[in-house]
Amino acid sequence: MAKGCPMQQLNLKPTHKPVAEYYRALRQFKAINVSHETAVRDAFQDLLKSCCTQFGWTLVPEWPIRRAARHALRVDGALVDEYRLTHGYWEAKDEADDLQKEVRKKFDAGYPKDNILFQAPERAILWQNGRQVLDED
Question: CB under 8 Å, gap of 24 or more: what pairs does 109-112 form?
Fold first, then answer.
């Protein structure tokens, strides 16, 4: 990072509307006994979309990651700026998945380790610059 260029920080609190809406959606799914990944990921996707707007980015679902001489991978989402530069990736899982095991499987398949969030409704694991920096419930 260039000297004198402050890192952008997300302004997001548990009381903010997008966070409240995320938890409301999870409660609605739980009330009807729905927990599969494709249902619960939409709730977090909406939260990420809201976060992206603070930086002028767009959350692009099913973002392809090209690999030499192999088929492209698709992450559940990428945070992309106006120049198509990616600032992060997101991979959703559900509560039934062993999140740490899923992280290893994705990295074995070739997923990037530079800025990726693996998320399940009750847990998140963040990797930055090739190392895990967060694992929180």
Answer: 109/73, 110/65, 110/67, 110/70, 110/73, 111/65, 111/73, 111/75, 112/65
Total domains present in the chain: 1
Q: What is the pLDDT along the chain (137 residues), one digit of tens a residue?
A: 445 556 678 888 888 999 999 999 999 998 999 888 888 889 999 999 999 999 999 999 999 998 888 899 999 999 999 999 999 999 999 888 899 999 999 999 999 999 999 999 889 999 999 999 999 98
pTM (2 d.p.)? 0.86
Domain extent for 88:
17-136
